[in-house]
Amino acid sequence: MATSVDPIVTRNIGNPESWTLRSYLDHGGYEGLRRALKMSPEEVQSEVDKANLLGRGGAGFPAGRKWSMLRKASPSYLVVNGDESEPATFKDHMLMEEDPHQIIEGTLITAYAIGAAQAFIYVRGEFALGIERMTSALNEAYAHGAVGHRIFDSDFSIDVVIHPGAGAYICGDETALLESLEGKRGFPRIKPPYFPAVMGLYGAPTIVNNVETMSNVPWIILNGGEAFAAMGEAQATGTRLFAVSGHVVKPGNYEVELAKNTFRDLIYDPRYGAGIRGGNQLKAFIPGGASSFWFGPERLDMPLDETKVKGEGGSMMGSGSVIAMDENMCMVRASWRLVRFFQRESCGQCTPCREGSSWLEKIMRRIENGAGRTDDLDLLLDVCDNISPGVQWPSKWPPNMTTICPLGPSIPPPIVSAIGMFRDEFLVHIKEGACPYG
Ligand SMILES: Cc1cc2nc3c(=O)[nH]c(=O)nc-3n(C[C@H](O)[C@H](O)[C@H](O)COP(=O)(O)O)c2cc1C
Ligand code: SF4
Q1: Ligand 1 within 6 A of CB of 172
Q2: Closest residue to atom 8 of ligand 2, CA basis
Q3: Which of 70, 73, 259, 385 could form a disulfide with 236 if both were Cys (CB 3.0 to 4.6 A apart)?
Q4: Can you list the domains of the chain with their CATH numbers?
């Protein structure tokens, strides 16, 4: 049975004109910032540490720990990642459109905690309404005295810049994002040495955090890190916003308590996905976005807990996108479409990613179009193994890498999962020379 806790990051959504300063102030807006400014930066950081707020952008690294790893040097920067370009991930999009002030407030509190000289919010270029609302919220926040010189008459001053991206998925990778912010092509940087906290924007120490991560910060400062950690369990604290899509009755963004709820709750609870459309059976689901290994219905009762999803499940919760696929879905086509996305978005720097993704896409396309060969499955798995050595089914987390950034090892999971779970479907495509699903 799904638990019910008061939402954190979506608590203002649904209020009339929730994106305006008026509405935000009517619901306690900027009180977290006022409180933070009366605390020392170390105290603010300590609350976020106690909350054990894991980053919501994909990698799931604890925000407080990341902040403490910032190299001590001046200047340092804060960059908020609102690039969100992965297929079926649409939670940050909603937060930017519906509650931009919450993101700005979280950004300001974080900037104060880490001593940033300037903050940047990088927003996916296609989010026209999101950019408009973020920009107008920032202007309102300046006029309100919440941003700029001597914020709320304190000694803290900072400018915040909203920077639209130009339509590349790879710019969501934190190091590519920094290149893009510097005005260059969005090529990921090699770590080490380019860990952003050590050598980030303009070579200066930089914290990169996700939009949803930032949205949690005002609540944590107002209610305390312990109150946040009291929700969920162990390492899976607080709530999380999941983008539930695919063949569910009610696709949408749902904020649920971590660890106490399961994938079954997200997909079947009438408040969330409300089950599979047309009364169909669930065939498989993708638990953490396009780059995660798939789960079958036997994993529905796995708790929404990153440690378990990685450890027991060999996959990840990643970007918080859960995609349900019903019995009428062709699994060859589903994995081909995902691989095609990665192939188009590869930046091309690394041979395994650039060439491998193109080969995989071509082989998958020919199988789906009825021109597959009997040795294609071995070939697919061999190419996957060259991109991510040792990749296998049942899956293990984390995948190995031969590439500069994690986009490379994001390519095999849809193929390895589909072959591992639905090998027969591939064989039927090849034997019959056609897609059995039409
Ligand atoms: C190809 C690729 C795309 C990514 N896209 C995003 C994105 O759109 N938004 C995001 O917050 N993180 C994205 N990430 C993860 C970021 O590199 C980074 O881990 C994250 O922004 C850190 O924020 P967090 O610690 O608050 O999660 C992406 C990573 C990769 C490799
Ligand atoms: S893994 Fe792919 S996207 Fe990442 S740097 Fe290499 S070529 Fe570019």
Answers
A1: yes
A2: 347
A3: 259
A4: 21-229 (3.40.50.11540), 234-326 (3.10.20.600), 331-432 (1.20.1440.230)
